[in-house]
């Protein structure tokens, strides 16, 4: 009986240690809408309408995701309408990593950082360059 319990515990730890990361790409925000990426919550519904080259990685087990996208700065998108500006070091590092994701996002001094969605997600947006990084901390 004791061996059965030990095996069960080991199995549970093995299953919880495994996670599946799903990668998706969308050429435009409109394409992401058509593929239900916004309706399902994969991509936030408050991104600028000019968002393009969206790349997202989702940990299916935890719900954590990272997302990068480009947008037209001339559109006048202001994340302050939905997010609160924070210092870069106040944002946690995501657990997911991809080659397109900056190794140390908090050290990126060219971006403005925001806490969004009640502090459960973060945004680093380049005010003039039109490139942004979004991640959540669901674990």
Explain this structure to me?
The protein has a seven-stranded antiparallel sheet with strand order 1-2-3-7-6-5-4. The protein has one domain (19-136). With 139 residues, it is of the alpha+beta class. The radius of gyration is 17 Å and the shape is globular. It has two helices and seven strands; from the N terminus they run αβαββββββ.
- How large is the count of helical segments? 2
Termini gap: 33 Å
The domain count comes to 1
Query: What is the number of strand segments?
Result: 7
In quaternary terms, these chains amount to single chain
Q: Strand-and-helix sequence, N→C? A: HEHEEEEEE
Question: Residue share in helices?
Answer: 10-25%
Large-scale geometry: globular
Parts with pLDDT < 50 across at least 5 consecutive residues: 3-16
Using only CA atoms, what is the Rg?
A: 17 Å
Strand content: 25-35%
The major beta sheet can be summarized as:
7 strands, antiparallel
Mean pLDDT: 84
| Largest sheet strand order | 1-2-3-7-6-5-4
Helix-strand category: alpha+beta
From the structure above, extract its key features.
single chain, 139 residues, seven-stranded antiparallel sheet, 7 strands, globular, disordered N terminus
